[in-house]
């Protein structure tokens, strides 16, 4: 009753958490084997499909005074998982790349397009494994084009995205902030390598939970384009559900912030390892030997099997 009383029906984060928790998992133990969480993305093998989020603006946040952006990137390196990094000037990216984490740079939809191309080129020449754009920062809370850290944002067209894809080559280009089949198909038409299905921690009220739209997106775009997800991903069970519904990976988000603030990279590593342990445990209980074998028919909601 208390939860219902405090529930805000416009809060996309709360809606997403409710949706994630409404999905139940059946057991399939006969003939099950110990599972492996290893996965391969864009030619690199990772120890888990759990990914770091594209955080921004966290430089002086850890209690010990260390750089939070560097700390979580270093944790990604130690864990051998894919790392995302958000809004950051070129001269501040070196310290991220110096961690040797396999990093995708996510660029804001700046009005100044030269800055976009400069940041793409910088990522290419500093051993990034991918580059992308955060399209859900086009608009601000008042409906105007957003201004982030004093930088004006702008609308993005398919032709513009095609240019970014070409500029990023041979690196994969990833569009973050897709939340519809319509935009996913447009990304596929632009030869985007991957999308990150997201409502950016509820920037728009009443936004659909990302995992609710993922199965339709997967059906529309096929298997060639990678699909990642974020928003509310906080435990291994969430990652398992994401994989079962058609994702290739899932990015943990704000759930790691308390551990990052209190213990830096060590705290983040402990949190992610705990998530991965739960993922591997659920894979074992469901007869899932590897992340590419997750069967959607192990998922249930309101008495209905989601794989049928």
UniProtKB/TrEMBL annotation:
SUPFAM superfamilies: FMN-linked oxidoreductases. The keyword Oxidoreductase applies. It comes from the Bacteria. Transmembrane segments: none annotated. The keyword Flavoprotein applies. Its cofactor is FMN. GO terms for molecular function: oxidoreductase activity. Residues 1-304 form the FMN hydroxy acid dehydrogenase domain. InterPro entries: Aldolase_TIM (IPR013785), FMN-dep_DH (IPR000262), FMN_HAD (IPR037396). Keywords: Flavoprotein, FMN, Oxidoreductase. This is Alpha-hydroxy-acid oxidizing protein. It comes from Candidatus Scybalocola faecigallinarum.
């Amino acid at each position: 009753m208390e939860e219902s009383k405090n529930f805000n029906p416009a809060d996309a984060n709360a809606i997403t958490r409710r949706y994630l928790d409404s999905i139940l998992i059946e057991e399939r133990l006969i003939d099950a084997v110990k599972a492996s969480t290893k996965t391969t993305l864009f030619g690199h093998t990772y120890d888990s499909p759990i990914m770091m989020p594209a955080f921004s603006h966290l430089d002086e946040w850890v209690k010990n005074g260390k750089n939070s952006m560097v700390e979580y990137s270093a944790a990604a390196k130690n864990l051998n998982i894919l790392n995302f990094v958000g809004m950051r000037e070129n001269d501040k990216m070196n310290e991220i790349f110096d961690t040797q984490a396999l990093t995708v740079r996510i660029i804001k939809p700046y009005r100044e397009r030269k800055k976009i191309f400069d940041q793409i080129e910088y990522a290419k020449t500093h051993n990034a494994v991918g580059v992308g754009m955060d399209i859900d920062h086009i608009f601000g809370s008042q409906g105007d084009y957003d201004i982030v850290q004093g930088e004006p944002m702008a609308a993005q067209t398919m032709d513009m995205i095609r240019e970014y894809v070409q500029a990023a080559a041979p690196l994969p280009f990833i569009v973050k902030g897709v939340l519809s089949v319509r935009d996913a198909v447009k990304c596929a038409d632009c030869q985007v390598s991957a999308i990150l299905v997201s409502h950016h921690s509820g920037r728009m009220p009443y936004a659909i939970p990302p995992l609710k739209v993922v199965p339709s997106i997967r059906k529309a775009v096929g298997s060639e384009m990678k699909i990642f997800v974020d928003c509310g991903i906080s435990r291994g069970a969430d990652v398992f559900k994401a994989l079962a519904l058609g994702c290739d990976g899932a990015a943990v988000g704000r759930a790691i912030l308390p551990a990052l603030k209190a213990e830096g990279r060590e705290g983040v590593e402990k949190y992610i390892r705990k998530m991965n342990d739960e993922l591997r445990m659920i894979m074992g209980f469901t007869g899932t030997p590897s992340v590419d074998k997750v069967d959607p028919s192990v998922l249930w909601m309101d008495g209905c099997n989601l794989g049928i």
